[in-house]
UniProtKB/TrEMBL annotation, chain A:
It holds the Pfam family DHO_dh. This is Dihydroorotate dehydrogenase. Substrate binds at K44, N68, A69, I70, G71, L72, N126, N191, T192. One of its GO terms (cellular component) is cytoplasm. GO terms for biological process: 'de novo' pyrimidine nucleobase biosynthetic process; 'de novo' UMP biosynthetic process.
TrEMBL record, chain B:
Gene3D superfamilies: Dihydroorotate dehydrogenase, electron transfer subunit, Nucleotide-binding domain of ferredoxin-NADP reductase (FNR) module, Translation factors. Heterotetramer of 2 PyrK and 2 PyrD type B subunits. [2Fe-2S] cluster binds at C218, C223, C226, C239. Keywords: 2Fe-2S, Electron transport, FAD, Flavoprotein, Iron, Iron-sulfur, Metal-binding, Pyrimidine biosynthesis, Transport. GO terms for molecular function: 2 iron, 2 sulfur cluster binding; electron transfer activity; flavin adenine dinucleotide binding; metal ion binding; oxidoreductase activity. This is Dihydroorotate dehydrogenase B (NAD(+)), electron transfer subunit. The keyword Flavoprotein applies. Binds 1 FAD per subunit. It comes from Oceanobacillus oncorhynchi. Residues 3-100 form the FAD-binding FR-type domain. It comes from the Bacteria. One of its GO terms (biological process) is 'de novo' UMP biosynthetic process. Pathway: Pyrimidine metabolism; UMP biosynthesis via de novo pathway; orotate from (S)-dihydroorotate (NAD(+) route): step 1/1. Pfam families: DHODB_Fe-S_bind (PF10418), FAD_binding_6 (PF00970).
Length: 304, 252
C-alpha cells in the first residue's frame, strides 16, 4: 500500500516520525532498528547554547500518560549540526530540526544556523515548551508574539517552517490562524499539557520543576479535538501528535485533519513503536476501506 | 546486533522480606550477557513507563535471571502478582555495570548496599568472590522486617547489617559502622541517593564506584530524564552512561 505523503519540504515514505524530545537524535533507537524505515525524524530541540536542563526528578508517571520537565537539555545548535545531523543523514529519511529559544533573537539564530546544512529538510518551531522559565510558551500562548516569531524565523530560514502549537490556550484556532497568517508552512500539534503530580509522603510536587508537560494516551482526545477544529479553519498541513501508540490512532489523527503524525511517549514503552505502527498501518487502512494514506487525507470531511 | 524486546518467563516469585519481592525469570540470552550493576527495564501492562529493576543474580547455565524489587506503587504491586508461567516484556540488560577488571588479587573490597540497592551489590559480591579477594559487606535496611540476603552475604563476605531503627544488627546508617570495617583498597556502593551522598562523603579519599537509582523515562539514553551532573561541568545519563559511576566523577 502507498503510505507516501508530500508536505512542504518533505516527501515522506510513510507518515510516521518520532516526536521531538522522545527520540534524542536517533542514536539510541538506531540500536533497535534501521532508522531508514521512518518517514522522518524530528530531532530534540536545539537552542543557541548548550543547556543542561532542569533538576531531577524530571519525569513522573500518570494515568495513561506521563509528565516530563526535561528543560530543553541539548548540546547547542552548532554541535547538533556538527555531530548529530551528519549521523542521521546517513539514513534514508527526512530530518526535521526542532528550534527552541527564550527570545526572538535566539529563535532566529538557531533557525538561521540550520541554513548551513543541506541535510535538514524542515524546521519545527517550538513555541510551546512548557518547561522553561522564559520564552517558549509565552510565544506559544499569545497570538501576536506567535506571529512575530513565525515571520522572523520564516525570514531567516531557507527551510519550510512547521510551528508547534501549545494546547495550553483557550483558543487553539486563533493561534493556528495567527501563525498561518505569519507565513508558517505547516503546523505541528499538540505539545504537552501543563500538569502536576504530588508525592504523597511529602505533599510536594514530584517533579523538581514542580509542573511538567503531560503526554501519552491521556491527551489523545484533546489532540484530536484541536486538530479537528483547526482543520476546519486553516489550510496548511498539520503534523499531528499526542498519545499515538497504534495504527488506529494514526488513522484517527489523519481523519481528524493531520497529514502526518509523530509518535512520542509510546517510544519509551516500546522502542519499536514507530516501526510497529508502520507495519500495521496498511492493514488498518484496508480494514476501514482506505487505499492509501493520501486517500484518507482526500476523503476526510467528504460526506459519504 | 540489534537490541530487542525480550519475553522473560516467570519461574518463581517469593516475598523475601517486607514489601520485597524476589523473582526468577528465564531468558538465556540476558542471563549470559548480564554483568553486575546492569538492570532490566520491565513493562507492566497498563502502566506508561517501564520499571527499571535491578538484578540480584544470574545463572547462565540454567538461563535464569533473578531480580529483586520493592512494592512501592501500582506498577510494582502488579508485577509482584505475576505467577510462574507468565511472561514479562523486558529490555536489557541495560546500562553499564560494575567494572571489576582493576580489582587485584588479594585486595580487600568494601561493599555497601542500602535497601533495594542491596541486590546489585550481591550480584557483584558473587562475581568478586570468584577472584581471590577479601570482601566486607555493609548492608543497610529500614528495620528488621526489611532485611534480606544476610545469610547469602555471610557465605562470601564479612557482613555487617545496619537498621535505621536498630531493630536488627547495628543501629543507624551504613556509614556508622565504617570505623569497624578496617582498611580496604576500594569500595562499591548502591542505594538511595542520601545514602550514596553519605558514603561518598565519608569515603572521599578512597577509590570507589557508586550505582544510582533515578526515575527514568526511556531507559536507553534518549529522553534525558535521568541525568546527573559531573565534576567536569558536564552530565551523565544514569540509564545508559551508568548506572555505575566512579565516585570521583559525579556530583551527587
Amino acid at each position: 500500500m502507498n503510505l507516501e505523503v508530500k508536505l512542504p519540504g518533505l516527501t515522506l515514505k510513510n507518515p510516521i516520525m518520532p516526536a521531538s524530545g522522545c527520540f534524542g537524535f536517533g542514536k539510541e533507537y538506531s540500536e533497535f532498528y534501521d532508522l531508514s524505515r521512518l518517514g522522518a525524524v524530528i530531532m530534540k530541540a536545539a537552542t543557541q547554547f548548550e543547556r543542561f536542563g532542569n533538576p531531577t526528578p524530571r519525569v513522573a508517571e500518570t494515568s495513561s500518560g506521563m509528565l516530563n520537565a526535561i528543560g530543553l537539555q541539548n548540546p547547542g545548535v552548532e554541535r547538533i549540526i556538527a555531530n548529530e545531523v551528519p549521523r542521521l543523514a546517513a539514513y534514508d529519511t527526512s530530518i526535521i530540526a526542532n528550534v527552541a529559544g527564550s527570545s526572538l533573537e535566539e529563535y532566529v539564530f538557531v533557525a538561521s544556523a540550520f541554513n548551513q546544512t543541506k541535510d535538514v529538510h524542515a524546521l519545527e518551531l517550538n513555541i510551546s515548551c512548557p518547561n522553561v522559565k522564559e520564552g517558549g510558551i509565552q510565544f506559544g500562548t499569545d497570538p501576536e508574539m506567535a506571529k512575530r516569531v513565525t515571520s522572523a524565523v520564516k525570514e531567516a530560514s531557507n527551510l519550510p517552517v512547521y510551528v508547534k502549537l501549545s494546547p495550553n490556550v483557550t483558543n487553539i484556532v486563533e493561534m493556528a490562524k495567527a501563525v498561518e497568517e505569519a507565513g508558517a508552512d505547516g503546523l505541528s500539534m499538540i505539545n504537552t499539557l501543563t500538569g502536576m503530580k504530588l508525592h504523597l509522603p511529602t505533599g510536594k510536587p514530584l517533579i523538581a520543576n514542580q509542573t511538567g508537560g503531560l503526554s501519552g494516551p491521556a491527551i489523545k482526545p484533546i489532540a484530536i479535538r484541536m486538530i479537528y477544529e483547526v482543520r476546519q479553519q486553516v489550510s496548511i498541513p498539520i503534523i499531528g501528535m499526542g498519545g499515538i501508540s497504534t495504527a488506529e490512532d494514526v488513522l484517527e489523527f489523519l481523519q481528524a485533519g493531520a497529514d502526518a503524525v509523530a509518535v512520542g511517549t509510546a517510544n519509551f514503552q516500546n522502542p519499536f513503536a514507530c516501526v510497529d505502527i508502520i507495519d500495521a498501518l496498511p492493514e488498518t487502512l484496508m480494514n476501514y476501506q482506505y487505499t492509501s494514506v493520501q486517500d484518507v487525507i482526500d476523503r476526510r470531511g467528504v460526506q459519504v | 546486533m540489534m537490541k530487542k524486546r525480550h519475553e522473560m518467563e516467570v519461574i518463581a516469585v517469593d516475598t523475601i522480606a517486607k514489601e520485597t519481592i524476589e523473582m526468577t525469570l528465564y531468558q538465556p540470552e540476558i542471563s549470559q550477557q548480564t554483568v553486575p550493576g546492569q538492570f532490566l527495564h520491565l513493562l507492566v501492562p497498563g502502566f506508561t513507563l517501564r520499571r527499571p529493576i535491578s538484578i540480584a543474580k544470574v545463572n547462565s547455565e540454567e538461563g535464569t535471571v533473578t531480580i529483586l524489587f520493592k512494592v512501592v506503587g501500582g506498577g510494582t504491586k502488579a508485577l509482584a502478582a505475576y505467577q510462574p508461567g507468565m511472561t514479562v516484556d523486558a529490555l536489557g540488560p541495560n546500562g553499564n555495570g560494575f567494572q571489576v577488571d582493576d580489582v587485584q588479587e588479594g585486595e580487600r573490597i568494601l561493599l555497601v548496599g542500602g535497601g533495594i540497592g542491596v541486590p546489585p551489590i550481591y550480584h557483584l559480591a558473587k562475581r568478586l568472590s570468584e577472584k581471590n579477594v577479601e570482601l566486607v559487606a555493609v548492608l543497610g535496611f529500614q528495620s528488621k522486617d526489611y532485611v534480606f540476603y544476610e545469610e547469602a552475604f555471610q557465605k562470601i563476605a564479612e557482613t555487617y547489617v545496619v537498621t535505621n531503627d536498630g531493630s536488627y544488627g547495628h543501629q543507624g546508617f551504613v556509614t556508622h559502622v565504617f570505623s569497624e570495617v578496617g582498611a580496604f583498597d576500594q569500595y562499591f556502593s548502591c542505594g538511595p541517593l542520601p545514602m550514596l551522598r553519605a558514603v561518598t562523603t565519608e569515603l572521599k579519599d578512597a577509590a570507589g564506584k557508586v550505582s544510582l537509582e533515578e526515575r527514568m523515562g526511556c531507559g536507553v539514553g534518549a529522553c534525558m530524564a535521568c541525568v546527573l551532573p559531573t565534576v567536569d561541568n558536564s552530565y551523565k545519563k544514569i540509564c545508559s552512561d551508568g548506572p555505575v559511576f566512579s565516585a570521583q566523577e559525579v556530583i551527587l
